[in-house]
Amino acid sequence: MARAIVAILKQYEGGREAMDVCREYSISKATLYNWRKKYSGMESTHLKELKAVQDENRRLKKMYAELSLDSKLAKEIIEKKL
Fold first, then answer.
1. What pTM did the predictor assign?
2. Which of 21, 22, 25, 26 is nearest to 11 (CA)?
3. Cα 9 to Cα 38: distance, rounded to the nearest angstrom
4. Residues 32, 46, 18, CA angle at the centre, nearest 5°?
5. Are the beta carbons of 18 and 29 closer than 8 angstroms?
6. Residues with Cβ < 8 Å from 40, sequence gap 6 or more?
7. Could you tell me the residue ranges of all domains in the chain?
8. Does residue 17 have a pLDDT over 80?
9. How far, CA to CA in Å, does 51 sit from each of 12, 54, 73?
10. InterPro entries, from UniProt (predicted)?
């Protein structure tokens, strides 16, 4: 998918009309402009690295939330026993 985004952006930045690019790849203009805002100037390797970091960040946030909840529950149990 990263290569496709980069290829689509390069076509658009190369002078093709937004509507033509969107029609060819069945994406909305909003999607094209969001991709341009986020990924303009990136190569596919950078985009893959960014996606990997975002996935890792999402996983770590979930892990933190679960540990935080476990800690809160443990404190409540300890307080009830005292």
1. 0.60
2. 21
3. 11
4. 15
5. yes
6. 9, 13
7. 2-81
8. yes
9. 22, 5, 33
10. Homeodomain-like_sf (IPR009057), Transposase_8 (IPR002514), Transposase_8_domain (IPR052546)
Lookup: tokens for 58: 């999402």
Question: What's the CATH number for 2-81?
Answer: 1.10.10
pLDDT band at 61 (very low <50, low <70, confident <90, very high): very high
Asked if 2 and 51 touch (Cβ cutoff 8 Å), the reply is: yes
CB half-sphere exposure, 47, CA atoms < 13 A: 17
Q: Which structure tokens are listed for 37?
A: 């805002």
In the 3-class helix/strand/coil scheme, how is the chain assigned residue by residue?
CHHHHHHHHHHHHCCCCHHHHHHHHCCCHHHHHHHHHHHCCCCHHHHHHHHHHHHHHHHHHHHHHHHHHHHHHHHHHHHHHC
Contact, 61 vs 53, CB < 8 A? Answer: no
Rounded Cα distance, 57 and 38, in Å? 17
